[in-house]
Amino acid sequence: MKPVRILFVCLGNICRSPLAEGVLRELAAQKGLASQISVDSAGTGGWHIGDPPDRRSIEAARRHGIDISGLRGRKVSKADFAAFDLILGMDGENVKTLRQLAPAGLEDRIDLFLSYASGRDQDVPDPYYDGPEAFKRLYQMLEAGCSSLLERLEERTS
Ligand code: 4NP
């Protein structure tokens, strides 16, 4: 597989994108692909810079043997567009913000996560104001999406 650098982006960088980061890292390790994939996450908003992930995302990951408690929130920067091959927004609003921020010529690195991963034009909904069930659904959605993403990346040759 061609080495690839992936940045997951959501609004706050405490619920969806850090959980996606932890899940993809774990699935890549299970497939022996850890050295070919570097993964990070960031938010389009700056409210949670330096914060650990939301405790509900930490718990959802922990239930599946994944520790994301050491991750810290950060805001996406212009430098990220050159530093990553793929910048995947969790929802359409994230993608819109990323397109506004991207330096000229690097917009093609941006895509909607589930659209790139599985060809489905579908958002990963923001669970921040929802209950525990939303975080269970979030985990399942991210696991399925990251699994499809890995399959697509394994097929990628250029
Ligand atoms: P996330 O969820 O984008 O999945 O990290 C959110 C977390 C915090 C806020 C919004 C969304 N917030 O407004 O603080």
Could you name the CATH topology? Rossmann fold
CATH architecture: 3-Layer(aba) Sandwich
Residues in helix, %: 40-55%
Gross morphology: globular
- Helix/strand/pairing category: alpha/beta
Report the uncertain regions: none
Question: Going by CATH, what is the homologous superfamily?
Answer: Response regulator
Number of strands: 4
> Which oligomerization state do the chains in this entry correspond to?
single chain
Strand content: 5-15%
Number of domains: 1
CATH class: Alpha Beta
Order of helices and strands: EHEHHEHEHH
Largest sheet: 4 strands, parallel
For the biggest β-sheet, the strand order reads 2-1-3-4
Radius of gyration: 14 Å
Number of helices in the DSSP assignment:
6
Average pLDDT works out at 97
Provide structural commentary.
This protein has 158 residues and is α/β, with parallel strands linked by helices. It has one domain: 3-Layer(aba) Sandwich (Rossmann fold), CATH 3.40.50.2300. It has helices at 16-30, 55-62, 80-83, 92-101, 113-118, 132-155, and strands spanning 4-10, 37-43, 86-89, 110-112. The termini are close together. Helix 1 (16-30) links the parallel strand 1 (4-10) and strand 2 (37-43). Helix 1 (16-30) packs parallel to helix 2 (55-62), helix 1 (16-30) crosses helix 6 (132-155) and helix 2 (55-62) packs across helix 6 (132-155). The model has no long low-confidence stretch (mean pLDDT 97). 4-nitrophenyl phosphate binds at residues 10-16, 47, 126, 128. 4-nitrophenyl phosphate binds next to loops.
